[in-house]
Design a protein that fits this description.
Oligomer: single chain
Number of strands: 11
Pfam families: DJ-1_PfpI
Distance between the termini: 7 Å
Strand order of the largest sheet: 5-2-1-6-7-11-10
Strand content: 25-35%
Family: Belongs to the peptidase C56 family.
InterPro entries: C56_PfpI-like, Class_I_gatase-like, DJ-1/PfpI
Largest sheet: 7 strands, mixed
Shape: globular
Domain DJ-1/PfpI: 4-178
Number of helices: 6
Protein name: DJ-1/PfpI family protein
Helix content: 25-40%
Length: 188
């Protein structure tokens, strides 16, 4: 039986932060499902860095169908979880179905990869307290308020939690996550 990994996201997620792990984990042999608030075509965005801007810019990105709604997810069917960034985590953290999913992964110590603004979701279920993490640098104070030790690094591994700052750090993020997966949930 193929090992399954869940990606949780919504509209305005960063295109690269959804699609890079989706493709890379499939390439590794995992079955990957994308869950969102409802089954629908999601609209992702592209965040980029341009001279003269104090922060990143946002442009329309790819569209992609959600395989299932949060209410349809059985966390027991999945060996790991991926939490992309973008603007989606800002509103998704208020979704009670998603919070149940997140809590289940942390309660069972399954591998979790989070990137950019994704840690806003794990903070919402109090899963960062006492951990070492990274996130988009503007979230340093949010991570500290959630009880985490923030590190400005390409990737930070704390047990089964692998975090990263943003899409420029993808290769290191996925390399570290795959190291955890090969130990905790290898492809069979």
């Amino acid at each position: 039986m193929t090992q399954k990994i869940l990606i949780v996201t919504g509209d305005a997620a960063e295109s690269l932060e959804v699609l890079y792990p989706y493709q890379r984990l499939r390439e590794e042999g995992y079955e990957v499902h994308i869950a969102a608030p409802t089954r629908k075509t999601l609209r992702f965005v592209v965040h980029d860095f341009e001279p003269g801007y104090d922060t990143y810019t946002e442009k329309p990105g790819y569209t992609w169908p959600a395989d299932l709604a949060f209410s349809e997810v059985d966390p027991g069917d999945y060996v790991a979880l991926v939490i992309p960034g973008g603007r989606a985590p800002e509103y998704l953290r208020n979704d009670p179905e998603l919070r149940k999913i997140l809590k289940s992964f942390f309660d069972t110590d399954k591998p979790v990869a989070q990137i950019c603004h994704g840690p806003l979701l794990t903070a919402a279920v109090d899963a960062l307290r006492g951990r070492h993490v990274t996130a988009y640098p503007a979230l340093e104070l949010d991570m500290q308020a959630a009880g985490a030790t923030f590190q400005d690094a390409e990737a930070v591994v704390d047990g089964t939690l692998v975090s990263s700052r943003a899409w420029p750090d993808h290769s290191r993020w996925m390399r570290e996550f795959l190291t955890v997966l090969r130990t905790k949930a290898p492809v069979t």
